[in-house]
Automatic annotation (TrEMBL):
Organism in which the protein naturally occurs: Stigmatella aurantiaca (strain DW4/3-1)
Bilayer-crossing regions: 20-41, 69-89
Localization terms from the record: Membrane
Record's protein name: Sterol desaturase family protein
GO biological process: lipid biosynthetic process
Family annotation (Pfam families): FA_hydroxylase (PF04116)
GO function term, MF aspect, one: iron ion binding
Amino acid sequence: MNFEQSLYGFVQRSSLPVLGALTAAGFALIYFGLGILGSWLSRRVFPRLGVGHVIDERPLRPGQVREEVGLSLVSIAIFGGYGALTLALDARGLTHIRWELTATGLAVDLGVLTLWNEVHFYLCHRLLHTRWLFRHVHAVHHRSRVPTPFSTYSFHPVEALLLGSVMVTLQLFYDLSFWAALTYPLVSLWMNTLGHLNYALATPRWWSAPLRASEHHSLHHRKVNGNFGFQSPVLDRLLGSALSRGSSHLGDGQVHLE
């Protein structure tokens, strides 16, 4: 019996609560690991090296990081539930997860996940910026007017349910591999951490689009009504929601609803 078969057998034998707990533990490990790494790099390493600059120099709210961690733990529990749901749908034949591991298959699946995540996140984010959902749901995330690496999962539970559906919705029309589903949260949260780093890295524009995500998303936290994309600015530019980079040092951080 090869490793893939052994892993598949373990998943089939495990209860949904166990699978959910394992998924949540994985998300927690990634969240705290990248949160600590991002804080260390942006507060100590990059400033000492003279690389880039802090984007928004306003102080954090008292207790902000503690609140972000508490909300993120609730989100992580919800994501764990989605992990169990993903495997349950496969076990019941409602979707299909591929268990074989190949370099080509993994690369293709990660590409598909990246594209779908951009579309899914943009649509969900625009929805969250409608008046009622912003006031009652998404405003929780925007309490972090100055983002930190620990604000990545700082959501109202309804927002966590909405954003956490990215893989389940993809499974409805695409046979995803288990290995891509296992790998992509690390890639996604690394990108999300960059987006909440509140630190601009002075890098050549031609290769640094991912590293400029922090500028893109910090401007969203400051101006609110624009820059709804996850990592790429393409959908914002196509759909007229891109914020001018020249306005990044303007504005009072107040919330203005659509």
